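Many introductory courses stop at the sequence. We go one step further.
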Amino acid sequence: MTKNKWNIVRCNHCGLVFLDNIPSDDELKNLYDDEFFKDGQKSPIEGTNYDVNPTYYNALKRLEKINKFHKKDGKLLDIGCATGIFIKAASKYYECTGLDVSNVATDIAVNELGVNAKCGTIFDFNTKDQLFDIVTMWDVIEHVRDPDEYIAHVSKVVNPGGLLVVSTGNIESLMFKIQKKNWHLMIPPFHLYYFNKTNLTKLLESNGFEVKSLTHDGQYTNVGYITNKLKKMYDGNKIMSIGDNLVKILKLDRLNIYLNLFDVMTVYAVKKG
């Protein structure tokens, strides 16, 4: 499959789908500039406070799930924390640290939300001195150049019995089968890998985790994000463009709704002792 200039292939053995021409680390880092964090619902600014941002509502729902697998205390690391909205919500229960490759995002997290966020990758952590009871990776694993190496290092910073939470798109979902390369999560070069239930579970288990639950959870989103996404996906389609403009005119773009397309997996896994 080809999308724009990117060639997307599938492993015949495990079913993993991935880009066969993955950009360098520097090229990937340059993708996550200030424009990236102005898009969609990643930023707590742009005329709205963090606590009315749908990302904050999603954080509250995610914390409810986490609290079913782990008591409400300990140290939490959020990898790919973006502008820090999740750790802002999680700080009610845990001692939180956020980590993101974008200094633009972490500056917003520190200066706008007052949370502990650092610019870097998991490989910057001293695994002997910094261990966590919970590590979360919301929509992160599909962005990294080597998922196996990445999770192997993540495993080193999780305490035995600690919880790892990973969410990512499901390439075997009905939405992908319908949309194919127009699937809203097929966005190379931002997304480098596309998992299914089996190979995602195997990735975690081979690195010392026991999968306790795999769910397809929905998320809160705002109407403006949906219509803007559709306009970009179907570039040149007049109906999509008119719909996006109409939503803005009627001031419905900030209206939050709950949506579940059943194409995003969330895995809760415990580090083996």
